[in-house]
Amino acid sequence: MGRPMKFEADAAIDRAMEVFWRRGYAGTTPQALVDELGIGKGSFYNTFESKHGLFTLALERYKDNRIAYLRDTLEPEGPLRDRLDAAMRELTGVGRHQQGCLMVNATAELTQTDEAVAAIADSLFTGIESAFRDAIERGQSTGEFTGVQDAQHAAASLLTTLIGSSILLKMGTDPERAIGAMRDAVLAL
User: Residue 161 burial (CB < 10 Å; 0-12/13-18/19+)?
Assistant: First the structure.
């Protein structure tokens, strides 16, 4: 009989998400993960199989958290403009950190060579765009959003602004620049 696991895998995934976000995939070694998660190498490999295995679990968790946040923020009834603006800021982290979006960072680093990362990124970006489209359609039906004809195109524009702003923040640009671009995209609705 093996020894019982002495750590919570879910908590380790959450912590690993932060480590990958801060260091990037290439900049995160298995040893750094073991050290930062406070687990042994055996436990690390027995639970997650590899750095890549833990990375994809962390990206899935990030994706699920972001989609849940959007659902909780945008689905309730009521005015949407301020909630869309707040969601854009939250998803980029503007004002709290300048790490950008973990998924945008991973996409820039790995999607050309890593199909698993590309699939998770596509799922998140499709989910964000869908949540934006649904909110825009609701805003159109209530008369709040009159500046756009096609909710799908407007949602794609918001997603593009979100991703671009995230990249600018990661580069260290003035947060007000990103805030202005996101605010203008929402005001155009």
Answer: buried
Cα-Cα-Cα-Cα dihedral of 162, 168, 170, 171, to 10°?
170
Helix (H) or strand (E) holding 74: helix 51-74
DSSP of 40-63: -HHHHHHHHSSHHHHHHHHHHHHH
Q: What is the DSSP letter of 78?
A: S
Domain ranges of the chain: 9-187
Give pLDDT tens digits for 51-78: 999 999 999 999 999 999 999 999 999 9
| Token pair recorded at residue 176 | 């007000």
* Sequence letter at residue 101: C
The one-letter code for the residue type at 81 is R
Average pLDDT of the residues in 165-170: 89
What topology is assigned to 9-187 in CATH? Tetracycline Repressor; domain 2 (1.10.357)
On whether the CB atoms of residues 135 and 84 are closer than 8 A, the answer is yes
pLDDT at 106 over 80: yes
Write down the pTM of the prediction.
Answer: 0.90
Neighbours of 6 (CB within 10 A): 9
